[in-house]
């Protein structure tokens, strides 16, 4: 890894709020659990709390976050790294306080970036003036390494599952794999498309008990999003449920989760700010293999 210059570190602190930055990666063990829709609506809820939010989307265009807002992705973070355009040109802004950045192509090449390309990424991030308070990562399920590098270095990894048994089984398998192969031992659980809070709590408690008893990981409850027709309708209209149906159960659930998220406790070793986060991301992406990380 290159040594990062002091002026770049200072610029990144101005950009992303130094040690106050929160980075949360959302993952899932299978498709169909509503992960991307949840991330999009949570981003809106955080923005409406006055936070500056960046959503990094690792998914291909057909299933991307931008589609949730009726927008079309034309560029990728990789275009920025390759100096084909500026970071501001790659960002979409569906509403005040919320910006979207497609990284579907870039994330697959993080481990193969040259030192010059790594430097370009840092320079691009330091070129923006508005600071971000929260970065939400909508992680793809198709990584060459088996798991998103963002999910390995972010402060929080939230596993999204629904109430059906298949999604619970796949979520458990994902947690077990990442714990074993990549030594990540803490996750939060978001139960989506659930009929009642009591059902969500029961699902969480069952999976948390099993992972704890087997020494796999420690789980915490992130929240629950109810099975709500308003959420389905707003998604079809490419609008946030918080705007389309602000009094709906789903909208209230997203507001509650956003309020809780800003108080999620950060790890003891994560006070270095965004420059440390980006350095870890690039460093880990260069070296990520299950055997190396397990050792």
UniProtKB/TrEMBL annotation:
<dbReference type="InterPro" id="IPR002586">
    <property type="entry name" value="CobQ/CobB/MinD/ParA_Nub-bd_dom"/>
</dbReference>
<dbReference type="Pfam" id="PF01656">
    <property type="entry name" value="CbiA"/>
</dbReference>
<keyword id="KW-0547">Nucleotide-binding</keyword>
<protein>
    <submittedName>
        <fullName>AAA family ATPase</fullName>
    </submittedName>
</protein>
<dbReference type="GO" id="GO:0005829">
    <property type="term" value="C:cytosol"/>
</dbReference>
<dbReference type="GO" id="GO:0051782">
    <property type="term" value="P:negative regulation of cell division"/>
</dbReference>
<feature type="domain" description="CobQ/CobB/MinD/ParA nucleotide binding">
    <location>
        <begin position="25"/>
        <end position="234"/>
    </location>
</feature>
<dbReference type="InterPro" id="IPR050625">
    <property type="entry name" value="ParA/MinD_ATPase"/>
</dbReference>
<dbReference type="InterPro" id="IPR027417">
    <property type="entry name" value="P-loop_NTPase"/>
</dbReference>
<dbReference type="GO" id="GO:0005524">
    <property type="term" value="F:ATP binding"/>
</dbReference>
<dbReference type="GO" id="GO:0009898">
    <property type="term" value="C:cytoplasmic side of plasma membrane"/>
</dbReference>
<dbReference type="GO" id="GO:0016887">
    <property type="term" value="F:ATP hydrolysis activity"/>
</dbReference>
<keyword id="KW-0067">ATP-binding</keyword>
